[in-house]
Amino acid sequence: MVGFRAGDVPPTATVKFIGAGTAACIADLFTFPLDTVKVRLQIQGETKSPVNTGHGPVKYRGVFGTISTMVRVEGPRSLYSGLVAGLQRQMSFASVRIGLYDSVKQFYTKGSDHVGIGSRLMAGCTTGAMAVAVAQPTDVVKVRFQAQISAGANKRYHGTMDAYRTIAKEEGFRGLWKGTGPNITRNAIVNCTELVTYDLIKDALLKSSLMTDDLPCHFTSAFGAGFCTTVIASPVDVVKTRYMNSAPGQYSSALNCAVAMLTKEGPKAFYKGFMPSFLRLGSWNVVMFVTYEQLKRALMAARHNWATPL
């Protein structure tokens, strides 16, 4: 009997769902400090409020400057502040937006073998919006923890569950879904750019026979997708972070937040934290997509071995 290869059989929706969530969590463990640095740089320069008390006197300059300042002032663990909520977010968020992407793409193409750019974009927007609807509370808590100065006794939240309870108590149940609008916009852009660019680069490399469907191809496709995504999504990402981290009443809407940034800090404010954002998203994409591709193959092989009698 010819030996089974995982690539011979398309992965099931369950395999994609589990593989995407697991791969995203692994990627987050490696890149979370860069995500925290990105958040700190994005909120720097914002008017002081009860939410970000302490940010005034602390100056962050660049990726490594921010890391060294945080480690010196708050300790190394501050780089992983909000990790629990971050992993909760990735398990729910990535499972939906990545795990369901191929299935939704097939729905829009109605089973056709030809997949156009329109179908890819529609699939990216749909799964991105679905993922935000499911995972928004975890994203709010993650951002709040990352923005919170860990040193001192004035911490707003003392644990992940405490953060969920405190936000719901002080801001109402809707507070856990604060910033859903800009987050849907941001993730529709990220999802479209990230998944569609990865899809297109990978297809181009395979069709031109420059690479085969293996590790170097996945690495190249993921890194290219990370750069394109950061350039396009950075302005919306900064507004999302500012608005989700804001005190009640600080901004009347996400648009008001964007206008305040533009008038007080200028257009450059929309690209605050660009370098850690690119480093984080680029490395996250590489780890996530490479792990995802390998997990899909391993899970399909395990499924085949389990289903095949000895």
Question: What are the salient characteristics of this protein?
Answer:
310 residues, mainly alpha, 10 helices, Dicarboxylate carrier UCP2
What does this molecule look like?
Its main location: mitochondrion. InterPro entries: MCP, MCP_dom_sf, MCP_transmembrane, Mito_Metabolite_Transporter. The longest helix has 34 residues, at 274-307. This protein has helices at residues 13-43, 62-74, 83-97, 101-109, 117-147, 160-171, 180-207, 215-245, 254-265, 274-307. The model is unreliable at 47-56 (pLDDT under 50). Helix 5 (117-147) packs across helix 6 (160-171) and helix 8 (215-245) packs across helix 10 (274-307). With 310 residues, it is an all-alpha fold. Among the domains are: 12-80 and 273-296, no CATH class; 85-178, no CATH class. The chain contains ten helices and no strands. The protein is globular.
Contiguous uncertain segments of 5+ residues:
47-56
Assign the structural class, choosing from mainly alpha, mainly beta, alpha/beta, alpha+beta, or little secondary structure.
mainly alpha
The helix/strand order is HHHHHHHHHH
Query: What count of helical segments does DSSP give?
Result: 10
Q: Mean pLDDT score, rounded?
A: 83
**Total number of β-strand segments?**
0
- How would you sum up the global shape? globular
Helix content: 55-70%
Radius of gyration: 20 Å
Distance between the termini: 13 Å
Strand content: under 5%
Oligomer kind: single chain
